[in-house]
Write a structure and sequence with these properties.
Number of domains: 1
Largest sheet: 7 strands, mixed
Strand order of the largest sheet: 6-7-8-9-4-3-10
Structural class: mainly beta
CATH class: Alpha Beta
Bound molecules: zinc ion
Strand content: 35-45%
Oligomer: single chain
Order of helices and strands: HEEEHEEEEEEEEE
Helix content: 10-25%
Low-confidence stretches: none
CATH topology: glutathione-dependent formaldehyde- activating enzyme (gfa)
Radius of gyration: 16 Å
Number of helices: 2
Length: 168
Amino acid sequence: MIFLAFEQQIQAKAEMTMDTKTTGGCMCGSVRYETKGEPFAINHCHCESCRKHNGAAVVTLAGYRVDQVQFNGNERKRYESSPGAFRAFCDNCGTPLTWEGDGGDLGQIIEFHISTFDDPERMVPTSHAFEPERLSWFDVADDLPRYEGFSELSPLLHHGPSSRPSPE
Ligand SMILES: [Zn+2]
Ligand SMILES: [Zn+2]
């Protein structure tokens, strides 16, 4: 089973590199977007703000530089959830779409909730962000790195579920 999952991840990566265009949009279809190339990261985010904006225990986001993204159709509505950081949604159907803001060395970035991609199966997560804000009753048995804050920009806490004893 583990081997199969690994094979699927490799395949998903290969497909993403070959076919550089990915499409998505909101539930009603009035806001549409297209991304070019691979995301720089795909994170499970456990922060409280993502929970509020999405009404979910955890949210998974795929991040891109702004120059990799093109929006089509109706304009997305943006809400400034903290200074300089925006969360966008469709003002017709209410689907939460993005987190947008400063990505450090990457410049301005747009992270899409992977649930809004037409084929979220291809979006294989790479890490957990804001692990300390995770709801205690929600944990998953993957071996991905878990970070204190914005993934690679913050301290690495551990790999795998917190319930698993760390190797000696
Ligand atoms: Zn919509
Ligand atoms: Zn978050």
